[in-house]
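Technical annex, item 7. During the second reporting period the consortium partners agreed on a shared format for inverse folding records so that results from different sites could be compared directly. Each record opens with the tokenized structure and is followed by the designed sequence. A conforming record, contributed by the partner at site C, is shown below for reference.
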């Protein structure tokens, strides 16, 4: 029987020892983390946007530099680093050339023991973050940071809606709190909502018990509505999100865990002046800023207790797909 998740496409193979060419470094990978997108990539879900054959999966990894090529002055052996999600996006707004250059999608990813990186496709991993914690950042944290801080400009007095306890969501919660906002959280169980409360969420709604959760969130905000929403659900959540928004509210369109197509009430968007904007993992500079902010504020990623080895990648992806996790599902490599 064909596995609907496409996990039969995953194979463990031996690769030649990587060498650092000019401007490159070799990194011994120590840890990786899983993202919802990896499930899509494994079954070829990104179509022509992904490398067509022999793709090495996973975008998010951290490790230690073990060799530097000619002309590299930024790094030396022993440096602790994490890889950028988009190696071709250094700073500024998204450009066409960077689209499709994501690791574990357009380019080979980090599910390897050693990998060559361009020297400008890495950022330093601060001493107070472990390799696993660093590996949690390049996609989920960077996307949350881009949405909440860089694009959303969230600050004190803002009211931010966070959907669920997955990787992106918990980072978004942490960054919204770091920025001084009031957080409204929805999730599928009392246990998960308690975790969001422990991370600083002030208002909690169980979306399973309250299918009309948009109204409930609006009521909890005493009729003022959300200034920002981090949209993770997509098809089944966007309507409720719009119900929860303040006029002029900013909806960061990030995820589609309930499906990719939604019906939209266009007059509401026009009359309430909502801003609906896509958010991706952002540039290297943006990743650097988020790493600095986490270090300066002592913020640590929420890592799922259950961990996997690289040989167990299939089991890790199956675990992610079941949705029982909170925060980041991580892979130990070295
Ligand atoms: N735009 C980008 O560049 C970008 C970057 C990163 C991720 N993404 C997308 O963002 C989404 C989340 O990624 P992730 O890695 O954080 O996934 P994840 O760790 O698998 O988390 C998904 C979470 O969605 C929540 N959820 C499921 N159904 C929901 C519903 N009906 N209402 C509200 N929440 C619901 C669940 O939280 P509870 O169990 O707590 O309910 C679940 O933990 C995916 O669609 C991914 O493709 C996009």
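Designed sequence (site C submission):
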């Amino acid at each position: 029987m064909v596995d609907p998740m496409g996990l039969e496409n995953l194979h463990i193979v031996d690769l030649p020892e990587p060498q650092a060419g000019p401007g490159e470094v070799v990194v011994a990978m120590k840890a990786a983390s899983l993202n919802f997108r990896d499930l899509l990539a494994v079954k070829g879900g990104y179509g022509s946007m992904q490398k067509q054959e022999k793709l090495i999966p996973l975008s998010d990894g951290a490790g230690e530099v073990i060799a530097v090529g000619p002309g590299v002055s930024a790094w030396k052996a022993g440096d602790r680093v994490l890889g950028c999600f988009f190696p071709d996006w250094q700073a500024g707004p998204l450009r066409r050339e960077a689209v499709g250059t994501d690791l574990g999608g357009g380019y080979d990813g980090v599910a390897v023991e050693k990998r060559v990186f361009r020297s400008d496709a890495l950022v330093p991993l601060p001493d107070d973050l472990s390799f696993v914690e660093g590996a949690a950042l390049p996609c989920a944290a960077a996307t949350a940071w881009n949405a909440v801080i860089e694009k959303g400009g969230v600050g004190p007095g803002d009211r931010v809606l966070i959907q669920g306890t997955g990787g992106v969501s918990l980072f978004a919660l942490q960054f919204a709190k770091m920025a001084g906002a009031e957080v409204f959280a929805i999730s599928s169980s009392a246990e998960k909502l308690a975790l969001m409360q422990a991370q600083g969420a002030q208002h909690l709604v169980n979306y399973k018990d309250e299918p009309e959760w948009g109204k409930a969130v609006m009521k909890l905000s005493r009729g003022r509505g959300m200034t920002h929403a981090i949209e993770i659900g997509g098809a089944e959540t966007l309507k409720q999100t719009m119900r929860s928004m303040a006029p002029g509210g900013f909806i960061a369109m990030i995820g589609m865990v309930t499906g990719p197509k939604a019906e939209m009430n266009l007059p509401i968007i026009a009359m309430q002046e909502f801003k609906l904007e896509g958010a991706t993992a952002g540039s290297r500079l943006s990743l650097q800023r988020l790493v600095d902010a986490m270090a300066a504020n002592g913020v640590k990623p929420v890592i799922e207790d259950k961990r996997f080895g690289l040989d167990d990648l299939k089991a890790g992806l199956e675990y992610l797909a079941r949705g029982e996790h909170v925060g980041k599902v991580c892979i130990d490599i070295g």
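The domain at 142-278 is CATH 3.40.50.720 (Rossmann fold). The first helix runs from residue 36 to 42. All partners now use this format for quarterly exchanges.
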